Amino acid sequence: MSAADRLNQTHDILSESVQAVENPFKVTVIGSGNWGTTISKVVAENAALRPHLFVKRVDMWVFEETVDGQKLTEIINTKHQNVKYLPNIDLPENLVANPDLTDAVKDADILVFNIPHQFLPRIVSQMKGHVKKDARAISCLKGFDVSKDGVKLLSTYVTEKLGITCGALSGANLAPEVAKENWSETTVAYELPEDFKGEGKDVDHAVLKALFHRPYFHVNVIDDVAGISVAGALKNVVALGCGFVEGLGWGNNASAAIQRVGLGEIIKFGQMFFPHSRVETYYQESAGVADLITTCSGGRNVRVATHMAKTGKSAEECEKELLNGQSAQGIHTCKEVHEWLVECGKTEEFVLFEAVYQIVYENAPMDTLPDMIEDLQGVNIPKEEGEHSE
Ligand SMILES: NC(=O)c1ccc[n+]([C@@H]2O[C@H](COP(=O)([O-])OP(=O)(O)OC[C@H]3O[C@@H](n4cnc5c(N)ncnc54)[C@H](O)[C@@H]3O)[C@@H](O)[C@H]2O)c1
Ligand SMILES: O=P(O)(O)OC[C@H](O)CO
């Protein structure tokens, strides 16, 4: 049996094994960027394949803009390609681009969040009062909500603002590869809510697997929402560090060193601030170390940071020059993490996160990164008067 046949067989078994639900779920994806469009393609393919579980039409809310004189939603709905954020990838015809946020979400049973996370507060406030009370959500966003109340997962933010249960999806998933249907894995995390209506009536792990699993996109469903969210947010900060050393031309050893320190800090951050997250998630799940590796090899954050090192330009300038409207989320996340660590007096325990923040926001020289990590760790070789760090 060929590899393709084996993949299709797995797919068919999954299709048959999830029993029909009383009322098929209507799905809406909120966001249409590089990943938003990719995951919309995945979801719409499954909605078309599984009418016993999902309404065929999937709405994708699009932050409307004009591309070459035409509305992006019109282009998507006629050409069935998102020419700006995911060019040259055909999208299923049952995926409908919708510029009206309240219209897109009002009938949805499952909301999949996919916007750059800096826009979440505004989008959620626009959605308030327009979503079904028993809707369920999955957040693909990477980042945190930091306020004087503490550091929060974005799924928690959605739950608190909209009153709906929210899980997360995160994994080693560079959008262009998934969109081309190159095989990858992901992790979905979801905890059944207290008002769970029962199998066949509500969203559960089997339904979520049926929604996201494709022959080219293998899904493991767990319940550690905090673990996958912490790993997904923080690997973008580590990727900035990798980009700096790559841009300086220091090679693979330096990148591996950054990833080693980064993985340790990701796990420590999770254990310290989200103690219910599980350590195994960070190294066993796609959302953990695998996402760290792929993001640090070829993600947008590493590319932006490499460009910063090569040109001396700011993070914002590099993001604008390289990404054509897409977002490198690590730029926002390293600030959120810094603000939180200052608030709780823990900056010295997260030397890499702090060094990345200082390079991005305080013009700390990148080539002092090894010293910053060493110095912030606080274990230094005693120096003679006038001697500098090596
Ligand atoms: N791209 C990936 O490989 C990938 C993979 C997994 C998860 N994610 C995460 O998914 C989230 C969304 O990423 P993405 O790649 O879909 O987006 P993106 O980085 O491609 O950003 C572009 C999107 O932002 C929208 N936008 C621009 N200005 C806006 C505004 N003022 N209000 C609302 N929307 C606005 C644009 O319309 C477009 O849809 C991020 O948190 C990201 O980390 C990305
Ligand atoms: O391209 P990045 O750096 O935003 O990373 C994308 C995804 O999060 C990788 O899984």
Automatic annotation (TrEMBL):
One Pfam match, given by its short name, reads NAD_Gly3P_dh_N
Residue stretches making up the Glycerol-3-phosphate dehydrogenase NAD-dependent N-terminal domain: 26-191
Q: Can you cite an annotated GO cellular component?
A: cytosol
Q: Keyword NAD on this protein? A: yes
Reported EC number(s) for this entry are: 1.1.1.8
Q: Catalytic positions?
A: 235
Q: Which InterPro entries match?
A: 6-PGluconate_DH-like_C_sf (IPR008927), 6PGD_dom2 (IPR013328), G3P_DH_NAD-dep (IPR006168), G3P_DH_NAD-dep_C (IPR006109), G3P_DH_NAD-dep_euk (IPR017751), G3P_DH_NAD-dep_N (IPR011128), NAD(P)-bd_dom_sf (IPR036291)
Protein residues bound to NAD(+)? 31-36, 63, 119, 175, 300, 329
> Which top EC class applies here?
oxidoreductase
Identify the residues that the record assigns to the Glycerol-3-phosphate dehydrogenase NAD-dependent C-terminal domain, covering every copy.
224-369
Q: Which residues bind substrate?
A: 142, 300-301
**GO BP term, example:** carbohydrate metabolic process
Gene Ontology MF terms = glycerol-3-phosphate dehydrogenase (NAD+) activity; NAD binding; protein homodimerization activity
Q: Which reaction does it catalyse?
A: sn-glycerol 3-phosphate + NAD(+) = dihydroxyacetone phosphate + NADH + H(+)
Keywords attached to this entry: NAD, Oxidoreductase
- Tell me the protein family, please: Belongs to the NAD-dependent glycerol-3-phosphate dehydrogenase family.
What is the name of this protein?
Glycerol-3-phosphate dehydrogenase [NAD(+)]
Provenance organism: Lachancea quebecensis
Lineage of producing organism? Eukaryota, Fungi, Dikarya, Ascomycota, Saccharomycotina
